[in-house]
Amino acid sequence: MKAICTELVERGTGDTDPFDGAVFDVIVCTQAYHHFEDINGTTKILASYLKPGTGVLVVIDMIRSSESEKLHKDHGHVVVYKGGFEEEPIRSAFVDAAGLQNYSFKPAFQMGWEEKLVDLFIATGVRTAT
């Protein structure tokens, strides 16, 4: 296992490759998408580091609800906060922006957070072979 702190850009577009050419079987991003300003761009970047044909992107985050939108209201001046997602923006990021296949979006479980109960989803997609 190895940790790398870097600003990711789409594979092949930067001056250096922080992973020395490595591609990944699975990339998991948990409870972070609701803090990303551009989920289409982020998804495309992450997908570029997946193994072609078999690499899977897994995203776990909040389903938008009245409860999820109330969380972290005071963080907006410091970091982006979207209050969760409906399925369409996630589908668009995976399929339209990143070109992932075998897309799936499923409500997964509930989590207690700041005395509120929020629903989380699991979204997955597989990088194309080319």
TrEMBL record:
It comes from the Eukaryota. SUPFAM superfamilies: S-adenosyl-L-methionine-dependent methyltransferases (SSF53335). This is Methyltransferase type 11 domain-containing protein. InterPro entries: Methyltransf_11 (IPR013216), SAM-dependent_MTases_sf (IPR029063). Residues 16-53 form the Methyltransferase type domain. It comes from Rhizoctonia solani. GO terms for molecular function: S-adenosylmethionine-dependent methyltransferase activity. Coiled coil: none annotated.
